[in-house]
Design a protein that fits this description.
Strand order of the largest sheet: 1-2-7-3-4
Radius of gyration: 33 Å
Helix content: 40-55%
Strand content: 5-15%
Number of strands: 7
Number of helices: 11
Length: 271
């Protein structure tokens, strides 16, 4: 996108602008806005050579000529009307593979509308593209609302290592308040001289109890730190493994920001 913005700023009227698939790494609705607002309107007055495999833009009035590439060579050449009129051509088979006809394809609920333009856009297409469903590439995200269910707690306990590990961590949690209360209780014993010891002996016992309490406090906190970190790593690895097994159609239909949110912000909320 930065390179595309630089091209807009640097382009002069009558110049040649080479665009190497700038619409590939964006969502469908963003790609439609970039094509209409940037490539067609902002770069008007220039000759644009656009390399793309997104056929939904080829019927735009600003597209003057189409070059169909195959195996590094120009397989077909002509306008949209010329190429679609040739039955059995490579271009028509590409359009048929995505259900595209001579109309403009709707993208993410919006439509790339034909617009008269005095400039020329030369488009080179590759013979691979992704399918859309009912003209919409992306789908609305479904979110579950309400209280956290027992199934969610059971899932997290399983990520911790199971019920035995969870009960162990609950037991260790009691070490934290115990390490704080025990020295104070011993001070009360010392004050009433219930053990009938010398002052030096009381002091040694109090220091020892305080030291052991400090170690138990640190141990309790580290147990939870390492336990929850292990759970977070397990959940992240599980989600990432499922993501790697997804089909390309899922990757095409799911915005990259939504995927990053699952592995980032949502992971933080779980932690």
């Amino acid at each position: 996108r930065v390179a595309l913005a630089r091209a807009v700023f640097a382009a002069e009227s009558g110049s040649l602008v080479l665009l190497d698939d700038p619409l590939a790494a964006v969502d469908a609705h963003v790609g439609a806005q970039l094509f209409e607002g940037c490539i067609v309107e902002a770069l008007e007055g220039t000759t644009r050579l656009l390399v793309t495999n997104q056929l939904q833009y080829l019927n735009h009035a600003a597209v003057a000529r189409i070059l169909v590439m195959q195996d590094g060579r120009i397989a077909e050449e002509g306008t949209f009307a010329d190429l679609t009129s040739q039955k059995g051509s490579l271009f028509t088979s590409m359009l048929a593979s995505i259900g595209a006809k001579t109309r403009n394809a709707e993208v993410a609920g919006g439509t790339v509308k034909p617009k008269q333009s005095k400039s020329n856009v030369l488009m080179a297409t590759a013979s691979s593209c992704s399918k859309s469903v009912d003209g919409k590439l992306t789908k609305a995200e479904k979110k579950q609302e309400g209280a956290v269910t027992r199934k969610a707690f059971a899932f997290f306990i399983g990520a911790l290592g199971g019920v035995p590990v969870f009960l162990y961590m609950v037991l260790v949690s009691w070490l934290f308040p115990l390490s704080e209360v025990t020295p104070d209780l011993f001070l009360a014993v010392w004050q009433d001289d219930l053990l009938d010891l010398e002052q030096e002996q009381y002091l040694a016992w109090w220091v020892g109890i305080g030291g052991v309490g400090l170690l138990l406090n640190v141990f309790s906190r580290l147990t939870w730190v390492f336990g929850t970190t292990h759970a977070a790593a397990s959940i992240h690895e599980m989600v990432f493994s499922k993501l790697l097994q997804c089909t390309m159609s899922f990757i095409d239909k799911t915005p990259s920001g939504r995927i990053l949110a699952r592995l980032g912000e949502d992971q933080m909320l779980i932690d």
